[in-house]
Amino acid sequence: MFFEPTLVSTRWVACFDLLGTQDLLARGEETRVFRAYTDALDKLQRDGQLIDGVKHAWFSDTFLIIAPDDSGKSFTETDLLARSFAYFLLCNHVPFRGAISCGRMYADFDGGVYFGLGMVEAYEYGDGQDWIGLVLCPSTISRLKSFGLSLDNRLNWQLFSVPWTTRPQTAPEQLPACIIGESFRINGRNPCLEALKEMFSAIDKEKPRVLQKYSRAIEFIETYRRTTVQNS
User: Fold this and answer.
1) Which of 3, 213, 188, 181 is nearest to 107 (CA)?
2) 67 and 78 Cβ atoms separated by less than 8 Å
3) How far apart are CA 81 and CA 198, in angstroms?
4) What is the DSSP track for 187-209?
5) What is the separation of C-alpha 7 from the centre of its chain, rounded to a whole number of angstroms?
6) Long-range pairs of 194-199 with CB within 8 A, sequence gap ≥ 24
7) CA torsion, ordered 29, 35, 36, 38, to nearest 10 deg
């Protein structure tokens, strides 16, 4: 195996830390994750939002969505796919923590080799959260601002004091957090909110820290869901 310089690029990277993967594998239900990803792709294709060049990788309990570059077009595609993936993960009752970064990364899909600061930041910000959520990393905020895009009232995202188990040293007081499922509402209902409540009700009440991860996500969506509708 040789290092291929052309595989290094500054790119958008979405990293999902899938929770409960060991339990899924033990029950032989690993297809849930792949079904969630293919459902997300199918929906985007049906809506005419084709994803060109954005690929994925999965190892252990980490799922990556990797763009070819850091262009505005690639962010739109990565954002759409990440939010769709998050939606279908929750609809399949697969909890997660995720983050989208922008940084240099080596991505060899044929050889299965991935490394770089973009991937490290996305993993750090995803893994450190203490709830079920998807956030934008500081590198993403910086790159979007270079396009002249404001994050104050961005559709589907809300500046929020994200709860942490391990807060990254570079984390600001607030980050844009995704109001998961709001852009996929059905007859006014948010299927992700309903799925989170179902998952919450099934958790052992003797596990308060686990319950808190879900209750925080539920409260966040319920608090900011009307803001999303007004902006849409």
Assistant:
1) 3
2) yes
3) 24
4) TTB-HHHHHHHHHHHHS-TT-HH
5) 23
6) 195/90, 195/91, 195/93, 196/90, 196/132, 196/221, 198/93, 199/93, 199/95
7) 160
Nearest Cα to 139, choosing from 109, 95, 166, 105?
A: 105
pLDDT digits (tens, 9 = 90+) for 25-83: 666 666 777 777 777 667 756 655 667 788 888 877 888 999 999 999 999 999 999 99
Rounded to whole angstroms, the Cα distance separating 178 from 155 reads 9
Place of tokens 């690029």: 9
Q: What is the pTM of this model?
A: 0.88
CA dist., res. 132 & res. 142, Å (int): 24
Condensed to tens digits (0 to 9), the pLDDT of residues 81-125 reads: 999 989 988 988 889 999 999 999 999 888 889 899 999 999 999
pLDDT digits (tens, 9 = 90+) for 206-216: 889 999 999 99
Identify residue 31 by its one-letter amino acid code: T
